[in-house]
Amino acid sequence: MVKKKILVLCGGISKERIISLETGKQVAKELKKNKYKVTTCEPDNNLLKNINSYKPDIIFNALHGQFGEDGYIQTILETQKVPYTHSGVISSSIAMDKEISKKIFIENKILTPKYIKFIYQKNEKNIIQKIENKLKFPVVIKPINEGSSVHVYICNKKNILKNLNMLKFYNEILIEEFIPGREIQVAIMGKKILGAIELKPKRKFYDYEAKYNPKAKTQHIIPVELNSKNLKKITNIALKAHKVIGCRSVTRSDFKFYKGKFYLLEINTQPGMTKLSLVPEIADYIGISFIQLIEWILKDASINR
Ligand SMILES: Nc1ncnc2c1ncn2[C@@H]1O[C@H](COP(=O)(O)OP(=O)(O)O)[C@@H](O)[C@H]1O
Ligand SMILES: [Mg+2]
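That is the input. Now the predicted structure with magnesium ion docked in place:
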């Protein structure tokens, strides 16, 4: 049998480069063990040359963050006659933009934390007043298009100006109402609900350390302790979000659950795919192994071209 050739795209220039390299490494290793010919590749100036010389059957997009998850690389890949995994151009760019995706959630009656967009201006005055006109402290400030909790800060009235200053280079950021309560994430696979997982960070919130440093000892709880009505509710919201954004393949939606309400924070079109990432963990719980998940993603890419 001729081995299928897979090009795993990973690394890149986003702040999630390290995570993407790890995802790429683990996906490539798993594929090599299982009857595939694999090469990994950076999305640099040689990308098209590399695609043309390697001639992959499928490109596995293992990139995260800017220029990997936001429609840019997908646009380049569309110019090639090779199927690529995960969401396409438009849905990737919408999902990566937390403001646009929130607007679509609201339009579709999906609850998401109240927010204001903050645009830096010279001699900005009355920031606190502007925030208080719409939101109550504490608030969460975050870049519009990052991931992995990079530059996400919970702020009170006292430290908001200092924290906003740290995000100055973004020009535009989101300021959201802080939703206390539980942290639950839901994975969707194609048109189906894969499952849910709860995260209990020991840190103040599910920040970068809580996500990636095992020493932070974030607890992963699966199955999530929700009654069947609530489980149905949260998983159906994730499926709806996946559909209204027009996503393909696998996505992971991040929620806060507080006082009986599910607040959708965001939908991720390139969720982490190391063996210890959340989507593989959810898949494993229902008996889908890491290689089965990867193979499903590859198959989905070729069907959807
Ligand atoms: N409005 C909010 N209320 C409470 N916690 C939040 C809020 N927004 C973000 N967080 C915390 O920050 C984490 C990262 O935020 P998220 O919006 O998912 O961005 P990222 O793309 O960086 O994952 C969340 O998992 C949650 O722990
Ligand atoms: Mg998130």
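DSSP finds eleven helices and twelve strands in the chain.
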